[in-house]
Amino acid sequence: MKYALVASLILQSSVALARTLVPVHIFAPSPDHFRPIVRNTTFDFGCRAVAHPTSDGKYKLHALLTEDQIEYLQNEYKSVDDISIRKDPARRSVAATAPIGTGDRFKNGTVTPVGLGTQPSGTKISTIMNVNEIPSAVQALAKAYGLVKFDLPYKTFKGATQWAAYVGAGSDKSKYHLYFSAGVHARERGGPDQLIYWVADLLAAQKAGTGLTYGKKSYTNAQVNSVLGAGIVFFPLVNPDGVAYDQSSSSLWRKNRNTKSGSSGGSVGVDINRNFDFLWDYPKYFDDSAEPASTDPGDETFYGTGPASESETKNHVSMYDSFPKIRWFLDIHSAAGDMLYSWGDDDDQSTNTKMNFLNSQYDGQRGATGDSAYREYIPSTDLTNIKTVSSATIAAMKGVGGRSYVSKQSVGLYPTSGASDDYAFSRYWAVPGANKVYGFTMEFGYSTNFYPTLTEFNSNILDTNAGFMDFALSAISVGLE
Ligand SMILES: *[C@@H]1O[C@H](CO)[C@@H](O)[C@H](O)[C@H]1NC(C)=O
Ligand SMILES: *[C@@H]1O[C@H](CO)[C@@H](O)[C@H](O)[C@H]1NC(C)=O
Ligand SMILES: [Zn+2]
Q1: Alpha helices of 286-336 — where are they, by DSSP H?
Q2: What one-character-per-residue DSSP string does 346-364 give?
Q3: Where is this region: Disordered (predicted)?
């Protein structure tokens, strides 16, 4: 073997080793105990940091850490009795998780995808779609049902043409009110599949004049027609460069693959879900105690080089221009088992209209939760509306008959800046003439289990698809205009 090749293999394996992430559980008596830990942006808390109550009255925080980081934390909290740090005993090898499909089951857009809601109970989908099968699946839906797949204006860093699709309300784009996206965080496997199989179910059921069944949840043909009639726009693969990389490396990759700010290891890429133009420049807008994103390219929440600096973000935003009457937006993520509603930068309040994200008087004060120095304004009618839809969504997911989910405000344990859901809602105030969009984040799956087992992958399809149905039905009943 040539020296250069040996050297490069050694280099590759040490890079791979350095990024080996171990699922870790951190236990404490209250969510507040986690605040100093979640502030450290060098740690990876999954999609967002979430404190889960445990059966013995404590709280558990999931993280993905390197051996060095585990040692650092264990040392740091050695003499703190309240806090314990343990490797997840149930962690599993990549080999135990659902495989990624090889080839193209949709034969270049000629074999129509069929979801679980139109197949006999117990049917299983045996692999996760590979990055090339995702557009092929949607192309096949276009061929079978006349759904429209179209290209978006900006190419990704790796040169991929991005695309999205719309269906259900004819050719007038102002009749489309529901917007779904998935595949923002590369490692959150199964999100694109869930969305595409759901649209496939709706179209198959409409054509056959039937309803849909997900576990113990059933929907009538009239409900199917009503959901399609609300006009569905979807962008199922927001981060194709990241997904391609994650699927080929199984490295739990989150960001895109832009090398402008860093070209090796973990310094590659921007977190698309911290790159939107909502309080993006967080060192200016937030209190010093809050770390809603990171300015360090080496961190998982690196915010990029400017608001909407990334093509994926720009394409996401272009959908609001193309479909000016979008009213409800859902971004599909994993893994925590929750449905998050606005706002994500600080606690909500409905009394002081002046205390809002546009008011520079409050710069430097946002993001410290549990206090009254700053809380984000939300009209009380809007808060009622979004809580109604969020609760209906998790009730349906639970109604499938598997696990339970929680609905909560997205700020939770830890604020975010530049996230897609807050950006969606903020447009009404920040962008002249913009429609009001209610933005949500769904986190399917079990905490930090980004790579589901095959059983979990199929349960996630059933749970989310029932969730999407009730999200849409509840949105329709609250109002589309
Ligand atoms: C954050 O954690 C790293 C270890 O991953 C440590 O070296 C660093 O000092 C911590 N930063 C702060 C501000 O505590
Ligand atoms: C796949 O289908 C497209 C049309 O949808 C066609 O342009 C392309 O050549 C096909 N590719 C292959 C490899 O058959
Ligand atoms: Zn995510």
Answers
A1: 311-322
A2: S-EESS-TTSSTT-GGGTT
A3: 290-314
pLDDT in tens, 277-324: 999 999 999 999 899 999 999 999 999 999 999 999 999 999 999 999
Instruction: Give the pocket of ligand 1 (CB within 6 Å).
Output: 40, 42, 69, 72
Question: Which residues does ligand 2 sit against, CB inside 6 Å?
Answer: 108-109, 139
Q: How far apart are CA 251 and CA 300, in angstroms?
A: 13
Give the angle 199-411-89 at the CA atoms, nearest 5°.
80
Residue 398, both tokens: 């639970």
What pLDDT, on the 0 to 100 scale, is given for residue 352? 98
Between CA 185 and CA 270 the distance in angstroms is: 10
Of all ligands present, the nearest one to the C-alpha of 140 is: 2
For residue 115 the two structure tokens come to: 């979801």
- End-to-end Cα separation, the chain, in angstroms: 66
Please indicate whether residue 133 is annotated as part of the active site: no
Ligand whose nearest atom lies closest to the CA of 271 = 3
Q: What is the CA(108)–ligand 2 centre distance, in A? A: 6
Its CATH class, for the domain covering 3-93, is: alpha beta
The answer to whether 177 and 325 are in contact (CB under 8 A) is yes
Nearest residue (CA) to ligand 1, atom 14: 40
Q: Where are the domains positioned within the chain? A: 3-93, 97-481
Domain 97-481 is classified in which CATH homologous superfamily?
Zn peptidases (3.40.630.10)
Q: How far is the CA of 107 from the centre of ligand 2 (A)?
A: 9
pLDDT digits (tens, 9 = 90+) for 190-219: 999 999 999 999 999 999 999 999 999 999
Which of 22, 72, 301 has most ligand 1 atoms within 8 Å of its beta carbon, as the pocket-test mutant? 72
Residue whose CA is at the smallest distance from ligand 2 atom 9: 108
